[in-house]
Amino acid sequence: MRYQTTTGLDPDDMTELVARIHEVLACRAMSLKGYRPGLYRQIGLTLILLRQDMVQMCAADLYRVSQPTVSRIWRRILPLVDEVLALDGISLAEAAAQGEPILIDGTFIPTGNRPASGQGSASYSGKHHLQRLNIQVAGTLDGQLIATSQPVTGSRHDSAAIQMCGWTQILQDAKVSWIADTAYIATGAITPIKKTPGRDKLEWEKQFNHAVSSLRSAIEHIIGHLKNWKILSKGYRGRLAELPTIIRIVTRLELCRIGW
Fold first, then answer.
1. pLDDT score at 87
2. Which positions fall inside the DDE Tnp4 domain (predicted)?
3. 107 to each of 30, 164, 195, how far by Cα in Å?
4. 3-state class (DSSP) for residue 136
């Protein structure tokens, strides 16, 4: 699927998004007529900030407005994007109820060094030596994003993170098969077989691991596409309290991009 590099959405999806927001504003008897820039460019600016993680001052120069104007546009448009895309996609519970196998993997959102936030020790990952939050990502076997979880502290292992976000219970209740890497061995997932100390892997174990890895490649591509929204990969600079909302909006935009 072709899409615009700058905003993440192709022209048709962009037009649909603008139309939805315009309809919401009209229903509320609100109008951005006379605002500079216009509604289409305000939405485009907001998407660029999400897709490219651009500094607001640079975006202000690009759109020939002031940085405070960019900040006001961000605060005005972001909740509207979240609202109009609320019905895009399905939840993990709805996907699990369909009975098809689900791919699960974790990824982290770097949050920068925040010693003054009081959350430094909780979000610090000893493995990656940085402060971060952990999210779980679910996808289909054919490489389509399903959902992302609420973020949990980055100091927790994937096997603990999936329980903390509530996904383990959802998958168990649905009695659906789900595939993950060896970080999830203790959770009931289908995972590769670890090497037993003192002996080489048997041939059937190698074949099984190859099959699981082949299936899991799709979730790696899904995460790669999701983190093309650079605000999730370059290092989130905003308020930590707002990060769950940003993750939800980016997930909905990615679902919009792939045509859910």
1. 86
2. 104-253
3. 39, 15, 24
4. strand
- How large is the average pLDDT for residues 108-136? 71
The closest alpha carbon to 1, from 95, 12, 180, 171, belongs to: 12
**Are the CB atoms for 193 and 116 separated by under 8 Å?**
no
| Residue 186 near residue 211, CB atoms below 8 Å | no
**Domain range annotation of the chain:** 11-84, 92-258
3-state class (DSSP) for residue 190: strand
In the numeric block, which tokens belong to residue 252? 């909905």
Question: 138-156 pLDDT, tens per residue?
Answer: 999 999 999 999 999 887 8
- 23-30: average pLDDT: 90
Show the tokens assigned to 154. 């980055």
pLDDT of residue 128: 59
Counting residues of the chain whose pLDDT is more than 70, the rounded percentage is 92
**Percent of the chain at pLDDT exceeding 90:** 70
19 class by beta-carbon count within 10 Å (0-12 exposed, 13-18 middle, 19+ buried): exposed
| Side-chain half-sphere CA neighbours of 167 within 13 A | 31
SS (H, E, C) 138-152: EECCCCCEEEECCCE
Distance of alpha carbon 114 from alpha carbon 136, whole angstroms: 23
pLDDT-wise least confident of 5-14, 32-41, 210-219: 32-41
- Per-residue H/E/C for 12-76: HHHHHHHHHHHHHHHHCCCCCCCCCCCHHHHHHHHHHHHHHCCCHHHHHHHHCCCHHHHHHHHHH
Amino acid at 120: G
